[in-house]
Amino acid sequence: MPEDIITPEVEKTLLETFAKELKGEVTLHVFTKKGHNDQFNDVLINLVQGVARIEKRIKAFYHQIGDADSARFKVARSPSLLISPDKYNIRYTGAPLGEEGRSFIAAILMAGSGRDFLEQESRNRIKKLSVHRDVMVFVSPTCPYCPQEAIYAISAAIARPDVVSAEIVEIYENLDLAEEHAAMSVPKTYINGELTASGLEPEHDFISSLLAGEPAAFAGPIQAEQPPSEKENRDFDVIIIGAGPAGLSAAVYAGRSGMRSLVLEKANVGGQVSITPVVENYPGFQQIAGKTLVDQMLRQAAQYARIKQGVAVNDIRAEGNNGKLEIIASDGIYHARAVIIGTGASYRKLGVPGEDRLAGRGISYCATCDGYLFKDSKNVMVIGGGNTAVTDALYLDGIGARVTLVHRSKDVRAEDRLKQVLFQRNLPVLWETKVVEFIGEKKLDKVRVEDINGQNRRDMKMDGVFIAVGYAPQSALAKEIGIDLTLEGYIKVDDRMRTSMPGVYAAGDITGSEKQITVAVAQGTIAAITAFEDLTKKTVR
Ligand code: NAP
Fold first, then answer.
1. Active site residue: 116, 205, 331, 370, which one?
2. Residue 370 bears catalytic tag
3. Which of 140, 200, 278, 328 has the fewest CB atoms within 10 Å, i.e. the most exposed one?
């Protein structure tokens, strides 16, 4: 049996959470079969015993696959976990470990109260669903994006138990299912067997694909006739777009200066930092997981600002009510006196044949999310020579993958400290080598590489590839609304973070500055203080 996986600290948090938020009884049914994923069977039993010990209203039941209950609930995979199966169709295929602990606790709270975690707008939309939908979300324990996608699926199964089922599949424990669905990159969502989303999507899009049974089409700006569902909550002093370090520090400063502040994040709180395995250069922390750092930033920011996840901003218009800016978002219209854009940057593609086709089928851009799958001495290639590539290579090596770094230059440009560790660990590096093609049918099989001068072309057999060749600015919104951009597509700002559009500020990677957490945090601070000063001056005038 594994050690008790609920630490005293987690136990204390759970005790408080259940006392405050659990409204009724929940049953957890664990199904296992000896000889199938034994290690995870034990861990799941340990986890369920732990939560049932903490809270009396959580009743645990343990079954063998093959018994009458497994036949009744059609459970064939070990381990599986069903949540209040007499009321809902919610199951974990595999143990909800690591990051997925969050969706597991959310599922208990939802099943106990019968209340989902969706926005009111989504609840109204989901009422219209009249056909059956089986939602399947593939996840991994190290993926920070996954729990939110799982929570959408579980919420839908809670809101409409008559027609929606939710299954959260842990890929490492169910490699055959992951391969069958080409789900080697997570999260991946299937509805009635159709792939509807790769990656975490905004809540609005999830509901759209649930209703349509197909991927959400780009909705475009929401029309004004679509009335805001919570009028009183739609008027703010400042709206911050993006919940990375820049947006979250802006939220702290804006809130503390007395401005009513809202943060809108279309995907995952924390931005790129949340998928950085280890951060070693943020003052105050010698070494901290990126995810832990942003979770702490989030908790702090949430004391000062409202934070909404799963909401994409499609437009900003100058001509709102009372001289306010009008923010057209995927869940309706907001008004604010100032907007701070902190949308960051997204990974850059390599742009070689096979990359798009095999993305999520062995090719990944997120080592933290997808690396777990390769931990048992699988051959993986990391491409790039910056801080991200070297950090990813060290992380993958650390969890047990066999890593080869492939870099087009003679030397890495990563920090000296990272470089030293890379050489100490003696990881193989192919210098002055470029990737020319990714090869594979259903999944990645080989990577075709050649020397930088076009010589010595060869194929290398690989289980996985992690591409880390830098980032491109996420400035489509800024471009759309006519804000001045640099030639590379970053938002132009003055030394107080003002953009060319009055009332609109920008901070963090989107400004093209040094891509460091410290810089993003500093710019978020300056943007919030400047917005406050500008608004105060305006009012006084
Ligand atoms: P980066 O510093 O821009 O490095 C990109 C790497 O990819 C370079 O080595 C580059 O090669 C290579 N590359 C670019 N295009 C390529 C292509 N088409 N084919 C092959 N190789 C290509 O990107 P990053 O490592 O993602 O870092 C982004 C920013 O985040 C940096 O400012 C970095 O300092 C920061 N960051 C910081 C930390 C940290 O402080 N702990 C961690 C992660 C990232 P060349 O070298 O030959 O140009």
1. 370
2. yes
3. 278
Closest-CA residue, ligand 1 atom 18, reads 350
Catalytic choice (237, 331, 369, 463): 369
Nearest residue by C-alpha to atom 31 in ligand 1: 515
Pocket test for ligand 1, best of 469, 490, 519, 521 (most atoms within 8 A of CB): 469
Cβ of residue 389 lying under 6 Å from some atom of ligand 1: yes
Q: What is the pTM of this model?
A: 0.79
**Is 411 marked active-site?**
no
Q: Which tokens go with 31?
A: 């199904």
- 71 vs 86: CA distance, rounded Å: 14
Bridge partners for 282 per DSSP = 285
Mutating to test ligand 1, I would choose from 515, 516, 517, 523 the residue with most ligand atoms within 8 A of its C-beta, which is 515
42 is annotated as an active-site residue: no
C-beta 254 within 6 A of ligand 1: no
- CA pair distance 479, 475, nearest whole angstrom: 6
Per-residue pLDDT of the chain (541 residues; tens, 9 = 90+): 456 788 888 899 999 999 999 999 999 999 999 999 999 999 999 999 999 999 999 999 999 999 999 999 999 999 999 999 999 999 999 999 999 999 999 999 999 999 999 988 899 999 999 999 999 999 999 888 899 999 999 999 999 999 999 999 999 999 899 888 888 889 999 999 999 998 888 788 899 999 998 877 544 333 333 344 445 478 999 999 999 999 999 999 999 999 999 999 998 788 888 888 888 899 999 888 888 899 899 989 999 999 998 899 999 998 755 779 999 998 889 999 999 999 998 889 999 999 999 998 899 999 988 898 899 999 999 999 999 999 999 999 999 999 999 999 999 999 999 999 999 999 999 999 999 999 999 899 999 999 999 999 999 999 999 999 999 999 999 999 999 999 999 999 999 999 999 999 999 999 999 889 999 999 999 999 999 999 987 655 4
539, with CB counted inside 10 A (0-12, 13-18, 19+), is exposed
Q: Which of 381, 408, 488, 510 to mutate to test the pocket of ligand 1 (most atoms within 8 A of CB)?
A: 408
Domains and CATH numbers, the chain: 8-212 (3.40.30.80), 232-346+472-540 (3.50.50.60), 355-469 (3.50.50.60)
3-state DSSP call for residue 376?
A: coil
The order of strands in the sheet holding 446-451 is 433-439, 446-451, 458-461
Pairing of β 464-467 and β 458-461: unpaired
φ and ψ at residue 22, rounded to 5 degrees: -85, 125
Helix spans in 307-445 (H): 355-358, 367-370, 387-399, 416-424
Distance 187 CA to ligand 1 centre (A): 24
Whether ligand 1 lies within 6 angstroms of the CB of 387 is answered as: yes
